[in-house]
Amino acid sequence: MIATKNIHLRGLLTYAVVLMALFSSSKSYAQSGWVKEKNEGYAKVSFSFFSSGDYYGLGGELNSTATEFNYNAVNLYGEYGITKRLTTTVNFPVYRSNSLETSELVSGIGDVRIGIKYGILRGKYPLSLSVSSEIPTGKEMLFANSKMPDPISGLINTINLPTGDGEFNVWTTLAVSRSLHPVPVYLSLYASHNNRTEDFTDQFQWGFEAGYIFSEAFMLRGKLTQLTTLGDDINPNVNFIFGEGTEYMSYSFEAAYRFIENWNVEIGYLNYFGSDFVERKNIYAAPSFTVGISYEF
Fold this sequence. Notes:
297 residues; mainly beta; three-stranded antiparallel β-sheet; 1 helix; 4% helix; globular; disordered N terminus
């Protein structure tokens, strides 16, 4: 029945939160050593969509018979340089919709993430430290009705498909970058720790990014990202939305094209490495796609 599928969805929503942080523009410095100059800014609106029926459990086992999960989101992201060393960031999922193949669609806002980023070093090897708080503004309880009555009881079952995880957590990120100028290539490496509350297990994330700038109007980049749960005290009975015990390594490709002055259109693709390379745990695995428009000033 639909109520028995809760555990299969826990990782997907955590993955979706991470996905929103990954897709940013050619001048977005969220996970790099660079910071914005004073009064410089960047804003982006994006749409992401995902659908999968392949769920990997807490032990890494594949459950290909899991109920298909569908997810869509509209996200706002922004950066602004307060000083030449201090940048503020905001990531706000203004709309999220969740549904199972067997349930109705439910929607609401997600958890907003607000942070500050300090440029420790500038110049040849820019180094930054950022701290961002994820605030539980999403709906922790959001029930969807099943499409069909239970064949035994005849009742309409419900399942909780919230748009937020109900916890306040803090991400601390250290990032370093390097431009290979005059070769039009840049590299970035970062590491993050997620301090979670409500007795949830902390997380560690690291990532590597390489970008190639073809012209002032067009660039491509690729990313590797790995998320790991810290500690073994994982609660298997927690509602799926909290991502307790979620682990994966993903890769993504992004393209940005400047179609008018200060305006960019961006597209992104993200997928997971197979479990023979890095084990996937408590997560749905399938390609995800993002399209967005950004403005720089």
